[in-house]
Design brief:
With about 775 residues, the chain is an alpha/beta fold. About 45% of the residues lie in helices and about 10% in strands.
């Protein structure tokens, strides 16, 4: 009854709980594996900073304090090349570790993997569980509905836990026919007013021995109490022995717990991967219907377009697994979107002599699929990707659906069966190039899997077990140390009255207003941080009562996360506690320098609470200097050659501190270029934002002109800037997204579509 993503978590939990009960595993070792330990102290400088990140070096320092991995730091320093080989290996979890660490136990290997290659932690955990408990604990049994039915009895409902894109109905109808209940089975799709009908069917079937299916329980929360009452009244003595109640529901908090505990639960998930997805589309309605498939007048074109659309549908679905790099918001595209698009394609082929690609691109990209898309950057990608599949070149047998040339449409006029055989020969797993992504995207994807694994397991851990660097201290003592460490570092609030005298609100200097507003916001955050930490320390000593809010703070500090009460008052950030505090202190010192030494010549763009106000301030200064209407101005962006500038530009502002994801700035060529292998983020140079009377950069999708069958470059890419790597934001009351900042135009010799498919964007800050 578990989803694929949670099966390994369950096996690992089972394994570690047993080992903890035996005394073979300590709580602080598990805690370290999940959080990387919590540290606020100073550490030695990183000896291998050319390839080992600061985060990894910090974790190695904290891991050395654990009993199981004592002395690791000293041994690590001695053999750089051997450890670097592990770091650069494609499968580091199978690699032999140097020196005595080659002999270490399997849990110690996990701890080392956590530090050096966290993106490969999940496959390492698989090997660990297989070694400790056996292979069968990492190989989930196949879905077998008949076996579930044999296990059931009239009093225990059978519950399908649904997931997007999976439909258990077909297998259920088939089973009903086999068991002879096909004609008498009653099906009710729950919703308003359906309660009494469902109840009547259940009562009748309970006596007569028939089957009842109640679909979508999650949408009818108010009736769930009634369902619970009915299920409690099922008794083996009075129930007909062939009666069965089948329920389907998405995971939902309204579903009654007692029914869930007594029932037999089954999950049924759609196939993963491009090949299985395309195959699924070809076997489903309407393409799976032989009569429909063979009824098109232009058979050769029809075969190409059905394959291309199925492939496009698979790419849209599978791209979600890359997180924000794939889609800012993960959309649930359904087989219904696919089905209507196929019918429209057939209609356009049958009714028009010419190819209607323009109309089809509009119908499919803006309506059928685009109708679900709410983020304009996602819409830009959707239309850009569709243009590769729905264009005249698709009818050419050599036309490739991906850069590698591994995926092409079947040639000639194949039958439905031949196409299905052809799909079976496609690669089972796909490389990121199918989606137009860089090979580094796989690292991002693996890293997200690791984060999900760790965060989910953390929810199962009690807050009482002590953190990674205990050394025999109690949990409360460690917590008090962390709170004291942060409290002593965070300065008191800014004296706003003194600052206002030094930087008064002036017509010709809008940056003074920006500074004044920033201080109000930062003072609010400083107040919350200092008050909660002081309160927590008093509560730990027993001087005041531990309130709910303080308990939340204590819980977060124990696992190295930012407390919820701080997040409410904070700027957007996804950093863990240590990174967040370091970044917060950096922002405060940037403002302190501004107050002490006057307005800086270069602004740290990521250091502002509300960056839109800062950019408007820069525009306003220019507008007032040259008496221009401010709403006709937009920034022109220039990448500067020097790393630092001691004096500000004549007009506009210098900013620094941005990072590029899925691309890098090539200083020699002065253009946007491909990322280097294993480097996910690249710092951007100092930029000059120069205000100019011109329309804003157009970030919408325009079909690209072709040159020798390839898209033609326009010389620039309109690159979005986001606050954090989540990219997804909500519209704030200011009319700005809480995450999207602005577009920046970057010069490049590659076509725009190349970077759109890469998911290239700039980020104000990283997540570590």
């Amino acid at each position: 009854s578990l989803f694929e993503k949670d099966k390994l978590i369950f096996s690992f939990l089972l394994c570690t709980r047993l080992l903890r009960a035996k005394g073979d595993l300590a709580d602080d070792e598990i805690k370290f594996l999940l959080t990387g330990g919590v540290s606020m102290g100073e550490i030695d400088p990183n000896p291998y900073d050319s390839w080992l990140s600061e985060k990894a070096w910090g974790e190695i320092n904290r891991m050395t304090l654990l009993k199981r991995s004592e002395g690791f730091k000293e041994d690590f320093k001695g053999v750089e090349q051997d450890w670097r080989n592990v770091f650069e290996s494609a499968e580091p979890y199978n690699h032999d570790f140097p020196g005595k660490w080659g002999e270490c136990d399997s849990f110690c290997r996990l701890l080392i993997m956590r530090c050096i290659r966290p993106d490969k932690l999940v496959p390492a955990v698989m090997l660990y569980v297989a070694k400790e408990m056996g292979q069968k604990f990492i190989e989930p049994p196949p879905f077998d509905l008949a076996a579930c039915y044999e296990d059931s009895n009239p009093c225990s409902p059978l519950i399908f836990v649904l997931s997007a894109g999976a439909d258990p109905n077909a297998s259920l109808y088939k089973l009903a026919d086999e068991k002879g209940f096909g004609d008498t089975m009653k099906i009710v799709s729950l919703g308003q007013g359906q309660g009494p009908i469902a109840q009547k069917y259940v009562e009748e079937a309970y006596k007569a021995g028939n089957w009842v299916v109640l679909q979508n329980c999650h949408v009818y929360g108010s009736w769930m109490v009634q369902l619970e009452r009915m299920c409690e009244e099922f008794k083996p003595e009075t129930a007909h022995k062939t009666f069965r109640l089948w329920l389907t529901s998405y995971p939902s908090s309204v579903f009654p717990v007692s029914v869930l505990q007594n029932g037999i639960k089954m999950t049924n998930e759609p196939a993963k991967g491009i090949r299985l997805n395309v195959k699924g589309s070809f076997l489903a309605d309407p393409i799976g219907n032989e009569e429909f498939f063979t009824s098109c007048k232009k058979n050769k074109k029809w075969c190409k377009l059905t394959f291309a659309l199925s492939f496009f549908h698979a790419v849209m679905q599978e791209r979600r697994s890359f997180g924000p790099l794939g889609w800012n918001i993960p959309y649930e595209f359904t087989s219904g979107d696919m089905s209507i698009s196929i019918r429209q394609t057939k209609m356009m082929l049958d009714e028009y002599a010419e190819d209607q690609f323009k109309s089809l691109n509009y119908l499919i990209g803006e309506c059928n699929y685009g109708g679900r898309v709410t983020d304009d950057k996602d819409r830009r990608y959707l239309l850009c990707a569709l243009a590769d599949f729905y264009q005249a070149g698709i009818f050419d047998d050599d036309y490739s659906l991906s850069a590698s040339g591994n995926y092409k449409c079947p040639t000639g006029e194949p039958t439905h069966e031949e196409i299905v055989d052809y799909i079976g020969k496609l690669p089972l797993t796909q490389m990121p190039e199918v989606f137009g992504l860089h090979e580094n995207a796989d690292i991002t994807k693996d890293q997200q899997e690791t984060n999900y694994f760790n965060d989910t397991l953390l929810l199962t851990e009690s807050a009482s077990s002590s953190g990674g660097s205990s050394g025999g201290k109690s949990a409360d003592e460690i917590l008090d140390e962390i709170a004291e460490g942060i409290f002593n570092k965070v300065p008191v609030e800014f004296d706003r009255e003194r600052v206002m005298k030094k930087f008064p609100i002036r017509f010709d200097e809008s940056m003074n207003t920006v500074l004044a507003q920033e201080l109000i916001r930062f003072n609010g955050l400083i107040d919350v941080v200092r008050t909660t930490l002081a309160g927590l320390r008093k509560a730990l000593k027993g001087l005041i009562v531990m309130s709910g809010e303080l308990e939340e703070v204590a819980k977060a500090l124990t696992v190295g996360k930012v407390p919820p009460s701080w997040i409410k008052k904070s700027y957007p950030s996804l950093k863990p506690l240590a990174g967040y505090v370091h970044d917060f202190l950096g922002r405060l010192s940037f403002l302190q320098k501004w107050i002490d030494k006057g307005q800086p010549s270069m602004f740290w763009m990521s250091g502002f609470f509300f960056v839109h106000a800062f950019m408007t301030g820069g525009m306003q200064n220019f507008a007032r200097k040259y008496t221009l209407p401010v709403d006709t101005l937009n920034f022109e962006h220039h990448m500067m050659p020097e790393p630092e500038y001691s004096s500000p530009p004549e007009d506009g502002i210098y900013v620094y501190g941005l990072f590029c994801e899925a691309g890098r700035w090539n200083k020699d060529k002065k253009e946007l270029d491909e990322s280097e292998p294993k480097v996910l983020f690249c710092p951007m140079p100092v930029m000059w934002f120069y205000p100019k009377e011109m329309p804003p950069p157009d970030a919408s999708w325009k079909p690209e002109a072709l040159e020798n069958g390839k898209p033609k470059a326009v010389g620039f890419y309109v690159c979005p800037v986001y606050n954090t790597s989540a990219r997804r934001g909500v519209l704030a009351t200011t009319g700005h997204s809480s995450n999207y900042v602005c577009p920046i135009v970057l010069p490049t010799t590659r076509p725009q579509s190349h970077w759109i498919k890469r998911g290239t964007a700039m980020l104000m800050q990283l997540d570590d």
